[in-house]
Amino acid sequence: VSMSLNDFDPLRVASQIRTVEHSRNLPIILMADGGDKPRVVRALDLGVNDFISRPIERNELKARVRTQIRRHRYAMELRQSVNNSIALAVTDDLTGLYNRRYFDRHLNILLGKAQEQERNLAVMILDIDHFKSVNDTYGHDVGDVVLKEFSARVKRNIRGVDLACRFGGEEFVVLMPDTDVSNAELVAERVRQAIGEKSFEINASRPLTVTVSVGVSFNETGADTPESLIKRADLALYRAKREGRNRVILDAA
Hints:
Radius of gyration: 28 Å
Distance between the termini: 68 Å
Number of helices: 8
Number of domains: 2
Structural class: alpha/beta
């Protein structure tokens, strides 16, 4: 950016570059005259990366540009590495869903808000029926394919406000804020049908039928805890398994 712009204020241009999302991290080099020192100092405060004084020597300009490009690339790689580390800390590697640690933290937060504001909260636990036999019969590679496709179908059939997590193994959990019994049942049935009504295409010659059992619990009193909600959903899930699998059982029923 030249400090000699006639139609634009170079400091305003630099400031606007820093405020726009797609250009916020671009390197900026000022081309300044000897008397521009006060404005150069101001520009550096605004986030300009470097400056070069006139008369400009071509090789010096090239060297400064190369330096800023290297620094920019390094910063972008570092930022991506940090973002990846954060994602790995809260997501399950295989399915891409949130992990148990993330679920535990958010269940505490959402339950506290629900109790404070006297609002509904539902917890849905899902367990893939006979998943051990899938691993035993077809191998763990096929089991992983099933887990990935299962997770994708769950995500497609819950609502935007719901939070889907992998609880562990073949067990999954969905937090449903502001959800009463009837709406929770609708979501749970939609997920169950999405899992069971269409075969999982393991490969072209081997479609696999998968079903899921679901237990749902609801916050009922101010005395509910995360542990009590999970326990009641788990008991409802156990009933679904005991009564024949491939069904939804509501703790409130």
